[in-house]
Amino acid sequence: MLNGWSKSNIKTYEELDEYFSKQEKINNLKKEISNKLGIFRPLTTFEEEYILKWTDEYNYGMDIIELALKRSVYKSNAGFKYYDDVLSDWHEKGLTTPDEINNHLASITEKKTRTKQVQTVAKQFEFTQSTFDNFDNLYDN
Prior knowledge:
By secondary structure, the chain is mainly α. The chain is built from six helices and no strands. Helix 2 (13-37) runs parallel beside helix 4 (62-70).
């Protein structure tokens, strides 16, 4: 713990209180993520680094992280790398609230639906291209 204090350059009691509050918040978040994922073992260092990235760098809370976790319901073998890819994509797109993310996901679903509709309509107009192998007889009639 002392090593963490020195890395964080803590010199006052106020800074120490802030450090403890942040650590408690991160520990609670790790527990909540583990519970939601059904992980009943300590998280690995790499898994913890992902969580720190999401909270410290992206400033995402559990509300947004949970949206990413829910996206894995239909994925087999989804892991922290998958969740990180989802959250990183949202971060790169500047999505910062659950409403923005839900709107983004709805627009993706709508685009997929429209694409399928267009493909269905396009199939109705498919035709076979005629080929003329014998041009000499083309104009004989």
